[in-house]
Amino acid sequence: MAKAAKKITPPDVATLTKAQAKVEHKRLALELENHDKAYYQDDAPKVSDAEYDALRQRFNAIEARFPDFVTSASPSQKIGAAPSGKFKKVRHAVPMLSLDNAFAEEDVVDFVGRIRRFLRLGDDDNIDFSAEPKIDGLSMSLRYEGGEFVTAATRGDGAEGEDVTANIRTLEDVPKKLKGRNVPEICEVRGEVYMTKQAFLALNERQKAAGDTIFANPRNSAAGSLRQKDPSITASRPLGFFAYSWGEMSAMPEATQSGMIKWFERCGFKTNPLTKLCHSVEQLIAFHRRIEEQRAELDYDIDGVVYKVDRLDWQERLGFVSRTPRWAIAHKFPAERAMTVLRDIEIQVGRTGSFTPVGKLEPVGVGGVIVQNVTLHNEDYINGIGGDGEQLRDGRDIRIGDTVVVQRAGDVIPQIVDVVIEKRPKNAKVFQFPKKCPCPLHTDVVREETATGEEGARARCTGEFACPYQKIEHLKLFASRRAFDIEGLGEKQIELFFENGWVKEPADIFTLPKRNIKIRLEEIEGYGETSVRNLFAAIEERRRISLERFIFALGMRHVGETTALALARGYGSWQAFHDACLRVAEGDEEAMAEMDALDQIGETVIASIRTYFGESHNRGIVERLTKEVTILDAEKPKSNSAIAGKTVVFTGTLEQMTRDEAKAKAERLGAKVSGSVSKKTDYVVAGPGAGSKLAEAKKHGVEVLTEDEWLKLVGE
Ligand SMILES: NC(=O)c1ccc[n+]([C@@H]2O[C@H](COP(=O)([O-])OP(=O)(O)OC[C@H]3O[C@@H](n4cnc5c(N)ncnc54)[C@H](O)[C@@H]3O)[C@@H](O)[C@H]2O)c1
Ligand SMILES: [Zn+2]
Fold first, then answer.
1. Which homologous superfamily does the CATH classification assign to the domain defined by 463-542?
2. pTM over 0.95, yes/no
3. ipTM of predicted assembly, 2 dp
4. Closest-CA residue to 377 (of 364, 362, 365, 392)
5. Tens of pLDDT along 595-635?
6. Fold match between 336-423 and 546-632?
7. Of the residues 46, 78, 134, 663, which is catalytic?
8. What tens digit of pLDDT does each residue of 606-615 get?
9. Which residues, including other chains, have CB under 8 Å from residue 350's CB and lie 6 or more apart?
10. What residue's CA is closest to ligand 1, atom 14?
């Protein structure tokens, strides 16, 4: 029996040394960046929103303690993710922002307090708030010119979104022409595109039957349905739209948020019927409670409520703090839970041979989604002795027949958060963890080593590349959205192709069209000529692949997307990376030291790369594969503007734009904006009232620009 691994809780941010904080800050930044990409670009999150929010809160705490870690590239300064290459880009005339979060009631009190202080209001002055459900969909900006619908754009990174006009045209809730007389010449109506829970479940049923992607939640399915190249697919999926905000307006028809919402209705939009005007903090909190009670019965997903200062002149005065308005906050709901019975435990063998026990539940609805499977992490977790940082309270173990509490937080994989011991039946069965792999090789199961060389909690098959389970799992990963993203080659298809012996390794996918499989494929049920043609076209389309996706797709142990991205950025090209791997495999000290010097890369990854490339079988797989595909070099930051790559400091008062605008502009053009002057500063832009920073600039011989000179430099 393995010793119980200690539960790993990261040290309090307040106790970190600056050097430790720096390392963690970097790691979290990369991790968040990766999650953002999966969530916003691929509509396929890898962690729950609650887990994501926890990472972000820790990240923010580090930046709050060490403000000099904040750069323009930090996830804390960014919104969403850059538009994907799939659609034409649209630049937003008024940026689309995010919202600050409140989790506890105190946060709401603080929020109102901050507003009071900012506006210098007395305790008796009343602030009205528009309280609105926070629809868990995707935000959309609809542009009307002369009352006619002209463009629809997603939020993207806030500054630039994707042009989804053709897709949005298919939505019934989006008027093609605004109703009423005297509508302003330019109106940008903003709001949320969403899918009802019912439509989401029905869509997933259809997707499952067709062997297509299953969506994790209604938000992802709405985003996935909308961001289709073929608008007729969007048209076939029922999407709704609630209006609640606006962008560019050539004239303002109303002076309050609540007035604007009524105006949207008059124009022909749907607005959320639960929206309410509140006059005090108590009313806001009561609203939050009431909506939370109704949450499960609503036919669309919400993840909280939003409070907005009602008076627009006050909104204007309050303005923004980097990516969020000061006049609004999202008050989130805690994760959703439900109780059910654990019927059985099954073992899944993963791509690297590791065993994941999966709990089979009596199906239960959690927040509008039917949950049937939960991850049980590993043997120690099931036995209640922790390991890998996972353990139920009071060291509770999990037995077949137990009543368990399941949690889903916009979840991909739901979790058991508690076992109801009082309800444990007498005949509840202790699960016997297998000693042999269920694969035909029937190899012994060993415990994986941890980074420190100790015996870990996860078990794995020792069959390595000979274990068919591992081969098949690797192929699934290889073709998945996160890796090669081959449409029409889902898990079911991989299984079919593998069982027929048509695809035994990744390179075989690309030679499929060349071989005589087409005829045999068409004999299989569900494969018409068109679907074979589509599949082959999808395969062709993926012959060009980014370096980070390629590295990730190899499926090396400990090389997830974050690590793959770090490796791709570190080496730049496949050639350079591959050479390094071969040298590492030979034990070349210099190559290992070079790899070790990269951000995010440590011993565990290097050891894994060494094992992988040390195996001639794997080298063969890679060699055959690289003959079939073109691997693109890693992306470099854009560098076509005069200030790209330069470091700029703003000081004093700017007269033609706000500091935030100036900063945003500089960053869009690829410059880094810093808060302090050093030798590395390239320009100091000084307005009236500039003080010590100007002196610093002179001391270091940094070029000083006036606001006009600056505007000229950036081409305005
Ligand atoms: N699981 C993951 O991997 C992952 C990754 C990235 C983000 N996320 C989740 O996404 C969220 C952060 O994303 P975000 O920056 O878009 O912020 P947000 O979703 O918390 O808030 C901003 C958004 O709220 C929406 N909204 C809905 N109703 C609204 C209303 N009445 N008024 C105003 N806005 C309304 C808008 O679309 C707006 O863009 C977090 O909840 C996070 O958990 C998860
Ligand atoms: Zn096996």
1. 5' to 3' exonuclease, C-terminal subdomain (1.10.150.20)
2. no
3. 0.94
4. 392
5. 988 867 888 899 999 989 998 889 999 999 999 999 999 86
6. no
7. 134
8. 999 998 999 8
9. 356, 470, 473
10. 98
